[in-house]
Every structure is written in C-alpha cells, then in structure tokens.
Design a protein that fits this description.
Layout lengths: L1 E7 L3 H6 L1 H13 L3 E6 L5 E6 L4 H8 L3 H4 L3 E7 L7 H4 L2
Antiparallel strand pairs: 1-3, 1-4, 2-3
C-alpha cells in the first residue's frame, strides 16, 4: 500500500476552487478500489490518500490525474508499506 501525503502550497480559496474536481477524481478511484481512504489533516495543511498498490510509480501515475496535481496546488509525498494484516472488510474486496 502507498500512503500519499498531500501538503497544500496554495491558498485555501485556490484549493476550494478545485475541490469539486478533486472529489470527482477521488470518487473515480474509490470506484476502481484503488483508494481505500482519504481525508483532510486535522490542521488542514493537506491530506492523506491511502492507495491500494504495490508500486509508488503506479500511485504517482494515478496522482498525476488529480486536479490538485494538474493545477500545482499541492506537494505529494509517497510512502510504501507492506501491509501484513488487513481488516477482514478490506480483504473481502
């Protein structure tokens, strides 16, 4: 799995202007079972997306479709981890 950390580098009005497009992007990859979770950080400095993949390159390719990436609104950091245990609700997908 890949943890994608998004850090906002533009103002919140610029982020909010692309939020609907970003949510459509998220919905598309949730429907494909590529995203397991997403959300805003508590301090609202960015967010996290949990990507079901064994490849940082695949996660990077997916994130290049995000309007936040396209409009250079956020920085991305990718962290790979090998999930050795999964919730039964995730492993049934």
């Amino acid at each position: 799995m890949i943890i994608v950390t998004l850090t906002f580098k533009k103002t919140m009005p610029e982020i909010y202007a692309k939020l609907d497009e970003h949510n459509i992007f998220l919905d598309n990859f949730f429907a494909k079972n590529k995203f397991l979770a997403s959300g805003l950080l508590e301090d609202k400095s960015g967010g996290i997306i949990l990507v079901m993949s064994d490849s940082i390159e695949e996660a990077q390719s997916i994130m290049q479709k995000d309007p936040f990436y396209i409009h250079d609104l956020v920085d991305f950091e990718y962290t790979f981890f090998a999930a050795t245990k999964l919730s039964s609700s995730l492993s049934q997908k």
